[in-house]
Design a protein that fits this description.
Largest sheet: 7 strands, parallel
Distance between the termini: 57 Å
Strand content: 5-15%
Order of helices and strands: EHEHEHEHEHEHHHEHH
Radius of gyration: 19 Å
CATH class: Alpha Beta
Strand order of the largest sheet: 3-2-1-4-5-6-7
CATH topology: Rossmann fold
CATH superfamily: NAD(P)-binding Rossmann-like Domain
Length: 266
């Protein structure tokens, strides 16, 4: 699918992968629709994207933890035809399950999964009626490569992958397509939180990450080629392959890296 002159909506576009994809799309001349929790940096971000080549930029305040906020954004867009929707925004939970906070778990599931479903459901009717469009959903290697401490986060990303695959089948023949991002390590704030959330019980010393800008170029190529899934590269690809086809070997490798801390005294 072409990005040039498309109407491209991105959630969580003020930093990390979302911002890198917004800049990539701007260079392609897309009309950008930015949905962020805060509009604090709105003017600066819009100016940067227009300078990069965006045909137009519109910003929306969107709280993905609130379905009414999602509905309000789509109500304001009822006369706008969105060609590409990138459900990018997400939250990270981590730690042994008994140590994770219930409110953080609930918030993460709503942003990573529920909001993604509602955003997709809202845009589909106009795409199907028009006979074209693409939904890009952000899953993760953790959906395929389970590891200690990622129980809730991995569950949300596995659900995103399953949801998008089901949608792919539903949309056959409509002209609307999907792209699942099985994202590996990317240099973002979320990636930098990994040692703090997992380091006390899991060896994460050798993690490698790709720049958001390089990943945005991979997403660009996947969109242009109408790929159905974008899988990781490098060491992440090795882990992805082993977890997919040699699960017993993958499990053994994970177990060698994991050491459960001593139980806390009550």
């Amino acid at each position: 699918m072409e990005i040039k002159n498309s109407h491209f909506m991105i959630t969580g576009s003020n930093r990390g992968i979302g911002k890198a994809v917004a800049l990539m799309a701007a260079k392609e001349g897309a009309h950008l629709y930015l949905a962020n929790r805060s509009l604090k940096e709105k003017s600066k971000l819009e100016a940067e994207l227009l300078k990069a080549g965006a045909s137009s930029v519109k910003s929306f305040e969107l709280d993905l933890g609130d379905r009414k906020s999602i509905e309000a954004v789509w109500k304001s867009l009822k006369n706008t035809e969105i060609d590409l929707l990138f459900n990018n925004a997400g939250q990270l939970t981590g730690g042994l399950l008994e140590d994770q906070q219930p409110d953080e778990i609930d918030s993460m599931f709503y942003v990573n999964l529920n909001a993604l479903v509602h955003m997709t459901r809202a845009v589909l009717p106009q795409m199907i009626q028009r006979g074209s469009g693409k939904i890009i959903n952000h899953s993760s290697v953790s959906a395929v490569m389970p590891f200690p401490g990622a129980s809730t986060y991995a569950a949300s990303k596995a659900a995103v992958r399953a949801f998008t695959r089901c949608l792919q089948y539903e949309l056959k023949g409509t002209g609307v397509t999907t792209l699942t991002l099985v994202t590996g390590g990317i240099e973002t704030r979320m990636f930098n939180e990994i040692p703090e959330k997992f380091g006390s019980f899991l060896d994460v010393s050798d993690l490698k990450a790709m720049s958001p800008e390089d990943y945005a170029e991979r997403i660009r190529d996947a969109v242009l080629e109408d790929a159905e899934e974008l899988i990781p590269t490098g060491l992440n690809l090795l882990g992805y392959t082993i977890a997919s086809y040699l699960p017993k070997l993958y499990r053994k490798g994970v177990e060698l890296r994991f050491k459960r801390p001593a139980a806390k005294k009550t």
